Fold each of these.
Amino acid sequence: AQKVTQAQTEISVVEKEDVTLDCVYETRDTTYYLFWYKQPPSGELVFLIRRNSFDEQNEISGRYSWNFQKSTSSFNFTITASQVVDSAVYFCALSEASAAGNKLTFGGGTRVLVKP
Amino acid sequence: DTAVSQTPKYLVTQMGNDKSIKCEQNLGHDTMYWYKQDSKKFLKIMFSYNNKELIINETVPNRFSPKSPDKAHLNLHINSLELGDSAVYFCASSQEQSSYNEQFFGPGTRLTVL
């Protein structure tokens, strides 16, 4: 069965600090997809990135970067030079190719608080 | 333009009542979903529909009945509301039902059962 664990429930940083969010997943599938979503205080869920299980290249998008390591079943997310607007709950999620439909299994989320 | 919209945004009701939440997407997607987010922020899928056909039903009580009149709409009807139904309900859509498709979420409906 698929499972996503985000061990950090809350992280507090001061603006301009870097922050890394951990995500560990479990799956028996060889083909699967990993996602990160952001939920700001306003409540909506915003898609950030998708990674497939065959692509272990790290990705950078502005101040955001992602490190995917199949050997440790991890898909970590780093915010560089954090800003107050980064304050949100961040969710890691997994979908398996073998599962019916496009079922997303979410981790418990990590709340990031960036203080000015 | 709103991609995935839900109405109402807030819903406060008494135990035992029946209520509906509406969802519409204008992205031309084939697949739509309902998720429940509890008070601890945990998100769990409830249903998914692909072209009006039920694909996923995640052991949700049968008091919850989704209805998809067309592929752009997926409504959620809840009978005999209970205190434990209080949560934020998110509708989402994706291009199709394959697992690589990212899902786009609506703004959520906060349901409070008194």
Amino acid sequence: EVQLQESGPGLVKPSQSLSLTCSVTGYSITSNYWGWIRKFPGNKMEWMGYISYSGSTSYPPSLKSRISITRDTSKNQFFLQLNSVTTEDTATYYCTRLGTVSYWYFDFWGPGIMVTVSS
Amino acid sequence: DIQMTQSPSLLSASVGDRVTLNCKASQNINKNLNWYQQNLGEAPKLLIYYTNNLQTGIPSRFSGSGSGTDYTLTISSLQPEDVATYYCYQYNSGLTFGSGTKLEIK
């Protein structure tokens, strides 16, 4: 069974970088697409981007200047780095698998990790 | 950006009721819409993809419909385990989520 698990610091200071790891078991990240989605307090959700089976990436324009998604295929992990964070980046972060690019559905999710941006 | 508006934001219904949740896009999204269910403290779960396709393992009481800018998720007979928040999102242009409908049992 495909399982994803987020890890990383739960507290980040403003202006610093947020770095999270998604560890995947039961499936190789050299297949499919793998992404990050976050849910803000108040329930708004935002797609943050993906990394493909080949290592190519895609990000929404709103985040493109300060986001990077990378991977380590030897460890079957992919990573999120978000630079210059503010309190508005406080959210629960989910790593996901994109089941198909035909219908853009995310069929497997990690349980989520809450990250607070605060001094 | 395409805006997604879900209504109502809160819905209270009785067990056995037929329930309809709405999702409206700010422009035509060509049926490129998916629905998720999220229980408190859990990750979202895919229910419906491409407007009306039921994900494997999802009970048949869930169904989706719509076209153009207007879409609905219907639960034919509400069950206690359906208490959750439901989200739609479009992927026709970029990817944007609705703000969710919280479903409660009356």
